[in-house]
Amino acid sequence: MQTFVHPKRNAGFLRLYILVWKGMVVMRGAVWIGLGVCLVVGVGQAQDLTAKQRAVRDEGWRREIRKALYVPERLPALEAKTWSTFSPMAGVLADRVTYQTANGMLVPAVVYRPDPKMMHWKGKLPGVVVVNGHGSDKFGWYAFYSGMLFAKAGAVVVTYDMIGEGERNSEKKSKAGSHDAWVGADGQPGAKGNPVSEDWGRRLAGLMQVDLMQAVSYLDAQPEVDAKRVAVLGYSMGAFLSGITGAIDPRIHALILSGGGVYDEVGPGYFENNPLPCQSAPMRALREVGDRAAVLAALNADRGPMLVMNGDNDTVMDMAHHPPEWFAAVRSRAVALRGTDADMFTTVVYPGISHRTSWVDRDGVAWLSQQIHFAFWGEKDIATAPVTHVSTWANANGVSIAPNYMREDREGGLDALGSEFPGIKREDLMVLPESDWQRMKGELTYESWVGKVKAGASAPAR
Question: Which CATH superfamily is domain 58-454 in?
Fold first, then answer.
């Protein structure tokens, strides 16, 4: 192993150590993987294929993934509707929106954007989609904090309810976990490994894929958004589905997976053993592509850059069995599939840190800015911006974070970029007036979707 010391870039940064062996980079107390890993890696499988053959092979993988997860080749008509608009803070507007997803269902979303009356820009804005972790939704702190943060930076940001949570829950609950149960035949409870339940899990994962893809479609349809500068930020379960969506949707330019990216290689592993149908069932379905971790990484690199952010003490992601060397090995195999390291993912691993949404920290915002170019914030702005300690902010603003995640090694310990962001009341983040929600809940809730799928209504085109 050979170590080089990079000069300080400014007073706010520690020295940068570049480790050529396995491409590790240590930056500001974190381990980064990616800058050197391909210097000594051969092209392997890609040597025997022409560029055209690789493109055909990659498209075959994408079709296999879409087929396995019931993702239609043609997405539904968007039919987006803005119900109302409010301003959560000076310079930011928030639109209450619905858009169509699979099986004739609707997704309620809050879309944050710069207020043109207070903030002026030239050209178009980048777009960002926030994909929540398990049990969270657009009401979660990091969803609305990210919305305000990136709108202030100069972007349009979509946050939405995951299926079964928030306005997509029959009781409008968050942290409901409605979709966690395995569904069997004839209304009976299902079980992992049962063919009917496995198919159900794949359909559930496919709905989540379409929810996200339609959020990208929403941004693409906005005249002020540059469709070539759209990023997706996924956390935990959201990171799991975002990494798969990135592999099959080339419209996404940049992708951050925080608390995720630990896809199994070939045989049973972390996600196959996961009890949730939306994760273990689709992972088993993707066995057909072979080395799933490398294939997903290669397809994402075809699409554009990806940053994977984890803590080395993250028990949720079983990081004890996914150290930097594990990611470096996945990266090497993905490079061998593609024959190039262009846009191959980079990983940052924070020592002593557990599960958290690291994209709001200075590292995450700086990386994102490099990829999609915020309208108002540049490198110097991000390097010198004040930060907000999340647990202190949450306590001062009445923001609910589960005690297990208020910990200093988890979300509560984050130093999120920006300051003076308010907490947003739950009622302000409701998209539909109560009378409209009652009238339309057959198009919104997980419970209604279950009935539609069991009845065979609106089956996805295959």
Answer: Alpha/Beta hydrolase fold, catalytic domain (3.40.50.1820)
